[in-house]
Amino acid sequence: MLACARSSAVCYHGPVNRHLLFIPGPVTCAQPVLEAMAKPMIDHRGPEFAALLARIERGMRPIFGTQAEIEILGCSGTGGLEAAIASAFSPGQRVLAAPVGVFGKRLANIARAYGLEVELLDTPYGHAVDPAALEEKLKADRAHAFDGILLTHNETSTGVQNDMAALAAAIGDHPATTIVDSVSGLGASPFEMDAWRYDIVVTATQKALAVPPGISMVAVSARGWERIAQAKAPRFYLDLARAREFAPQGQTPWTPPVSIAFALDVGIERYHAEGAANVYARHDRYARAIRAATTTLRLELFSQPNAHSVTVVALRLPENLSADAIRRTLREEAGVVIGGGQQDLKGKILRIGTMGALTQTDILGAIGALEIALLKQAYALQVGSGVRAAFEVFLEKEAASALVGA
Predict the structure, then answer these.
(1) Exposed, middle or buried, 143 (CB in 10 Å: 0-12/13-18/19+)?
(2) Rounded to the nearest 5 degrees, what angle is found at the Cα of 105, between the Cα atoms of 232 and 244?
């Protein structure tokens, strides 16, 4: 039976004393991660910090899928991307950017800010980059006019994830320097930097690793370092070559966010204790549960089949629903914080993240709260249907576990 209710007919009870973050980052952090930041300061030029940096780099290598050097920068993911662009190119060089949303376009704008000529490979929002289109573009570049290729692993503004293995195959032997924004993708699904031959890959603490924001990690291949040695773009703070000079001493060029490094150390330890395969499965399961629930509630998925992100689900809303009102109700009355649309998508979509220290119970509770928020806008739905759809996804895991144990 469909049930419809006005705002006066549905209400929450009790004060909201904590917020659960279902935004695409920063994310809810586990208590041990937060407690690590309360540790006393140490000398960032001393042996304790050197050991800390070594553990972080060692722990990050399998997450990147690389044996390459990893530089630790005191900045956000955007700072890491700017460091990659500034360090790898010279003004006047030409790059091909393949954005699938707001953050892919931001990467292209960073390149423009450093004097690069940017050509776009356009992809409609909601779709992933077509490997065949990328391959065709690069095969037509017989003179190798493109000095760089800018890709996004996962695009939180549209809920889209690219097939990075397929894009690597499409690039083939083209000599352009490849830079990958994997800020919201790395750690949540498999990534093989070395096998796929990407040159520079950038991520950050506040996404799948479930650590507060403040550090960007940048992995650079041997070929990437060769290109950096030739680059002439002006840079100072965001200089990967400078970071590399200090790394053998167990230091960073500038004062690092020591407390965030403590938290990252714990976050990486927790990641490996859970196991990468389990982390991948958890993000995938949460995303499938949210997609199943919202589809049952007749909310349209913004991302297209075979392009769904595992770290954020984007939903297109019917015109009679207010995204701002839904988000406000969830935040103020249920303590559930979800994202809205950005730029051209503002007011048109909702974004629900899966990253962070979230449980299946948290997911079910958020979906139940979403049902109530929809009812408050007189939206017709079968009460509990979204929660049930998500619950059935979670039951698949329990059934599989029971079979394995039988």
Answers:
(1) exposed
(2) 35
How far is the C-alpha of 385 from the C-alpha of 364, rounded, in Å?
11
The CATH number corresponding to 32-272 among 3.90.1150.10, 3.40.50.2000, 3.40.50.1820, 3.40.640.10 equals 3.40.640.10
Residues of the chain with pLDDT under 70: 1-17, 399-406
State which CATH number among 3.40.250.10, 3.90.1150.10, 3.40.50.740, 3.40.470.10 fits the domain covering 16-28+276-405.
3.90.1150.10
Contact between 99 and 110 under an 8 Å Cβ cutoff? The reply is no
For 279-313, the pLDDT digits (tens) are: 999 999 999 999 999 999 999 999 999 999 999 99
**DSSP alpha helix (H) spans, 297-359:** 323-329
Task: Please state, in angstroms and rounded to a whole number, the distance separating the CA atoms of residues 248 and 256.
Answer: 16
Closest CA to 209 of 151, 283, 118: 283
